[in-house]
Amino acid sequence: MNTLEINNYTKIIKGAVILDNIDLKFQSGKIYGFVGYNGSGKTMLFRALCGLIKPTNGCVKYNSQILGKDISVIPKLGVVIENIGLYPEFTGLKNLQLLAGINNTISDEEIKASIRKVGLDPEDKRTVRKYSLGMRQRIVLAQAIMESPDVLILDEPTNALDEDGVNDIHRIIKEEKDRGCIVLIASHNRSDINGICDEIYIMDKGKCRFLKEDTNA
Amino acid sequence: MIDRRSFAKLSVWLVLLLVFDLTDILSIDRNAEFFRSSGYDAVDMFNHMEFGFSNFDTILIETVFFQTAFIMLFPLFAGQDISSELTVSATYYFTRRASRSKWYLKRVLMLFIKCMLVSFVACFINYLMTMKISENVQITPILCEYSIFCLYCFILTLAANIAAIFTGSIISVVISSVFHIMSILLLKSSTIFGRYNLLGNCVITLSSTANEFVIKLSIELSVAVIITVVGLLIIKNKELGLVNADQII
Fold this sequence. Notes:
The structure holds 2 protein chains of 2 kinds. By secondary structure, chain A is an alpha/beta fold. Chain A has one domain: Rossmann fold (3-Layer(aba) Sandwich), CATH 3.40.50.300. Helices cover 29% and strands 29% of the residues of chain A. Chain A starts with a strand and ends with a strand. In chain B, 78% of the residues lie in helices and 0% in strands. Chain B has helices at 4-26, 28-38, 42-50, 60-67, 69-78, 81-94, 100-133, 139-167, 171-193, 206-237. By secondary structure, chain B is mostly helical. The model of chain B is unreliable at 49-65, 190-208 and 243-249 (pLDDT under 50). The radius of gyration of chain B is 20 Å and the shape is elongated. Chains A and B meet through helix 1 and helix 2 of A and helix 6 of B.
């Protein structure tokens, strides 16, 4: 069983406390939801968990190994971070091929399967620049799940999606959970994640508190 | 990763460069006449076409400014290549592989290759022009000129990229242009301080300027290495996704 921990994590930038002594532990096969207003610190918390920022205090541990010290990155991590895009001049498939080429652990067929899984056509010749917002959201999710990650971090994955799109994303997230993945999902809209999370936390001004265990999950 | 878009931009750039230098080729006879009447030889003219004109009349500074103006424009094409890649997809890249150094050095190498291409085209055109003036053109000064020119181009463009990583905007191009204008002014000042200007006048004659060339090459190499290392430290320590305090959450 994999565990992801964030221990007493504080991040201060230019005197502003962005993350305030966050202390959480996540386990395989569970979905953890984070809700909060825009600017509450959700995205920053996820960046911290990915190791993209350095803590002012505290640390992130994956299977008891400290991120940035014992390990450089979380192995098999799938990420969707808000407002971070892919190469707009390449097709969705080409973008995913480029990213898959970094670790080189999956075949083209597996990449195409993940694109189909999110409801897109891998043979689509349009570049990402010409994708709608919803299609971009789907292709970014495809890059996150294509390598069968052990940890899946999704920041506002249902943004710009219609009802069918949201249902598709929920279905995929549940499949990842059933596979044994640690899934973290953030949304400013609580209704987006209600019913799929095992635990829900609320973020406010950099602080995180437990809200409830979702019995519907 | 092969960045086809930036290479496509480079192709456009090289075409523009050819068109730009076409005016020189068309006015070769007039230029040649000027150099002959002034008592300069073919190598002098070659030097003049790039950086070295310290012993020439200051009226030529304007000419040299236009001759080298395309360097000011080069960062417009390549001055944001590294920074835009960093902001576009580096998050997905760095969460898969932590070696930021490898990512950065690969892109610096690509940038250097682009600078080599641009410099090669520029120097080759001047080589052809020089051939028109004298049949006894030596290849060594041209190679010296090429190396100085290439490094200068690289320093300017890498500095623009590093500035763009900080600012995330086109301001890096403005900064590069300022650097370039400063260089031109340094060249101008060299007419006051003598032969030892910073960039040019390195190969007026082989025998008298070999040491000067080595000094200039060493300076440029050192600056290139320093800028590369500074960029590496910035990339390694940059907290991705943070632009300023207002955008952090």
